[in-house]
Prior knowledge:
Blueprint: E1 2-4, H1 11-17, E2 24-26, H2 31-35, H3 43-47, H4 49-69, E3 82-86, E4 92-97, H5 107-119
Parallel strand pairs: 1-2
Antiparallel strand pairs: 3-4
Amino acid sequence: MLVTFTEPERLQAYVERNDLALPVLLDADRTSYRAYGFGRGTVARVWGTHAARRYLQLLRRDGLAGLRRLRAPVEDTLQLGGDMVIAADGTLAWGYWGKGPDDRPTVDELVAAVDRSRLGD
């Protein structure tokens, strides 16, 4: 499941643009973000050297065509997120609080966290 804070009128376009085939919950006022302690990143961390390197990689790979596909962000780019595993009883079994847009756990870490949460059933 995905929780997003996108505006309600933009939700369907968000789902389609990201080709999401999973349940998406809307948290426009970010109640769950605050409850789980997701803060805000700094401009330097979110738009600094990490982002510049990524844009350069895209430019090298796709040339100007890649730049033409880029769209100006319509969301709050400084809102930090993360990944949570919620146990069957509704408690937080595992969490990862990202420090920036490129800070995410690996798939193996997520799968291991889900497996551990199931052991508690």
